[in-house]
Amino acid sequence: MQKICKNCQQNFEIVSEDLKFYNKISPVFEGKKYLIPAPSLCSECRQQRRLSFRNERNLYNRKCDLCKKDIISMYSFDKEYIVYCQSCWWSDKWDPLNYGQEYDFNRSFFEQFYNLSKKVPQISLFNTKSENSDFCNLTTFSKNCYLCFGGDYNFDCFHCTFNFNTKNCIDVYWLNKSELCYECVDCDTCFHVKYSQYAKNCSDSSFLFDCQNCENCIACIGLNNKKFYIFNKHYSKDEYESVLHNLNLNSYNRIKELKEKFLIFKLEYFHRHAQIFNSEDCTGDNIYNGKNCINCFDIDGNARDMKDCLLCGLNSKDIFSCDHSADNSELQYENMSGVKSYHSIFSIYPWASNEILYSSSIYNSQNIFGSINLNHKQYCILNKQYTKKEYEKLVPKIIESMIKNGEWGEFFPSSISPFGYNETVAQEYFPLTKSAVGNADLHSLQRFNWSDYEPEFPKVEKIIPANLLPDTINEIPRPEDVGQADDILNWAILPVDMPCQGISTNRPFKIIKPELDFYRQMNLPIPHLHPDERHKKRMELRNPRKLWKRNCMKCNSEIQTTYSPDRKEIVYCEKCYLKEVY
Length: 582
What we know:
By secondary structure, this protein is α/β, with parallel strands linked by helices. Among the domains are: 462-541, no CATH class; 548-581, no CATH class. It has 13 helices and 40 strands. Strand 5 (60-63) and strand 6 (70-73) form a beta hairpin. It starts with a strand and ends with a helix. Mean pLDDT is 94; it is low at 499-504.
């Protein structure tokens, strides 16, 4: 079945397997199945809409609306929402059922849900079982972490996203089981590795790309089980140390030069068409231990039977068009951030819950429709409690009303997101300008909000342009040398480097004491860009989450890859790549 996306007007295909899945996941009430229709938007536009509800990185100062204490929140002060600190939100000081409302068949479901969302208190952050990690979001079991997002079981980490089981790491994206790593992307089980991507089981190395089991290597691509290599050339131990000394990777300017040289070197070397390992019948990129995962990205942990998904896995299966769904989840469709859930569709943050329809932030619950922020509940509609019989009688009537209104089968419109588009993950994958976003229309399938809120920058004694920073960390006086505290901590650094994507907020930033200690321990220069700009640059190192058809540049066989045909990289199919590497 060929369809035209109502948003971007591009053609997209619905295959028979898709229709079988829609039929399988369609809910049944009183013996009648309420079929989920084929989507009206292409997979990319649907993903953009879902991601417009996920704010990972933007944190603000405000007060808890219950205890009145100062808190850190993902909701800025100007948002028209009631926000509770984590302690109050999880307490028994309030009851979300007190905000329950009758369903009004004369109004659209999305309008009623939006009005309810502004009445029910929202949790300030998703940051549980953590210690001294107040400025983190969507994390668990963190200790002494600062501005880390989406990671678990981390210690002494700063400015990280999706890091798991890591210690003493800064400025990383998607890092696992690693220690003393800096500016790493998509790396696993590494120690003392810097400026690297797709490095696995590597140590004491810098500027690696797609390397495994390497030690003491600099600026290398596609190496396995190697030691003392620089630009893929082998050296003796003494020669290696001499060249390394001359490279002077403690200097900001020398590091910048080597980054540019390494980018050119990467264009001269062949690339694997996709990072897919230990998997069967999968297409996409960054897939590990998957089976039958189609057009999926960042999938790990025994994922099965998925399609059009981002960041899913961990023993999950039968998941279509979902993002951030994992940990033994099953039968999920058009969800954002579902964990340990069964048969959940068109929902946001369904955690450890079953049979969830069109709801948000539902925990340890089952049989929930159109509700918000419920914990250990069942048979609720718009936060109102019903009996099982009442629930199963009323929900079909609501679905039939939604079918007439054209709402059934559509995810929540982005216009009712509590966040501005520029605050959400959607901006990272589908960047837009304020003028492109325009004014939100509640009844549009793909209209976005925009946030103009600018938090006040904390007072500082002095501001220093980044280009006036010392070239090495050793040029910054230590407290024991000058008999006073680190003066650099009192300064704000003003970025002057070229920004990513031609856009820069030019925001000054400060570094904190543990961060400075890390730079000294690793002999690294002070960064010149704001942490958000550094995050954008890491994201730019990753290929788009989109597949193109092209031919292997070795055997000419057809491949599906995230390297678009107009790119300069030399791209090989898996078979040809392995022949060259091993």
